[in-house]
Design a protein that fits this description.
This protein has 130 residues and is mainly β. 14% of the residues lie in helices and 53% in strands.
């Protein structure tokens, strides 16, 4: 009986931990300099993106792996367009500071991830995977 309880606890903790990890696959990428309004042309992109909520870590497995330590993580909220937004500040692997947004665009039924620094920002179109 004790072994069954231990196995049940292990399985339950595994399910809870996996729910705390969001997995995406990027399909497109665009960027712009911070002071400009127009974005670059969309480029095809295929990178794995993982957000580990328990560790407040965002990892983008692009050709150069990007690691972001999230802090000041806000509760998700819905804007006037019906889009869901999760915001956070971050420190990246080079100790640069910026802002992260995960947005679910309700009208288009699509996800986007924004990475913003003082001088440049980029956006990934992503699809959620299991």
């Amino acid at each position: 009986m004790k072994k069954i309880v231990i196995i049940l606890c292990f399985l339950l903790s595994t399910v809870i931990l996996s729910a705390e990890t969001l997995r995406f696959k990027s399909t497109g990428f665009s960027y712009r300099e911070r002071n400009y309004y127009s974005w670059s042309n969309w480029q095809s992109e295929s990178s794995n993106v993982i957000i580990v909520m328990m560790d407040n870590t965002l990892i983008i497995y692009s050709p150069t792996v990007q690691t972001y330590s999230l802090y000041n993580l806000q509760d998700p909220y819905q804007d006037v367009d019906g889009d869901w937004i999760l915001k956070s500040n971050f420190i990246d692997q080079d100790s640069d500071v910026g802002e992260f947004n995960l947005i679910y665009r309700w009208e288009d039924e699509m996800w986007q991830i924004y990475i913003r620094f003082n001088n440049i920002q980029w956006v990934y179109d992503v699809v959620q995977i299991n």
